Predict the structure.
Amino acid sequence: MNQDEINSARVVFYGLFASVFTYFETDKNFKALQNTVDLLSQNPLDSNSATALLNMKSILDEKGFKALKDEANIVFYSPSTAYIPMSASYYCEARDDGKKRQEMLELVNLSNFRRDTKTYKDNEDNIAFMFNFMNHLIQNTLDGDNDSEKITRGVFERVLNEVVDQFASNVHEHVNSDFYKSMAIVLKVFIEYERQLYSLNPVNNYQAREVIKTHGNKEKVAAQEKAKRNFDEFKTL
């Protein structure tokens, strides 16, 4: 594969991650999500992600949008089951709005991409925002913007590489994960390819692990839906 082909595949993966880790309000983009999972299941990165993608496809095809939304609400928004932090600052400092947000602000300000503060309330170091930002930057690179590739490397090297493993592990280990357990496998496999692309090693960050508590054995209650979350230039694939 040449670099443009590699980047086109990266756009698909980052768009998928941005989609599934963002709050589902309607089923507007559900068909696009199904199509993306179907496409990737036919072209997996390895045997582990192949199995995971087939499970994801089966869940989407057989159970539909409501099951996916219900699982997302329980995994990410219900205080009765587990707390999965979504900000890079939390994984590094055990608090939101920390140094990683400042690093992300610096990187975002180098680009033509901005968070729509009226509709998107989470910070720039939110995991889903970063995935969407990477999707946007790589697409810009394909369109001939060489500066975007430099920013892309900065986001991965300075922020994502340090926090994404613990995030993926939290998602995979959540007691209510089914679709998202498989999604975490796909994410982990993809991140290893990104590390090869940038010649980087994983970063072992134990600072926040003691305060990332899971409560998977607690009795479940109805998930509380979160306020609307959106991106100003949201891409679906």
In short: DSSP finds eight helices and no strands in the chain. The chain has one domain: 3-211. Residues 3-211 form a domain with the TorD-like fold (CATH 1.10.3480.10). Residues 1 and 224 are 44 Å apart (CA to CA).
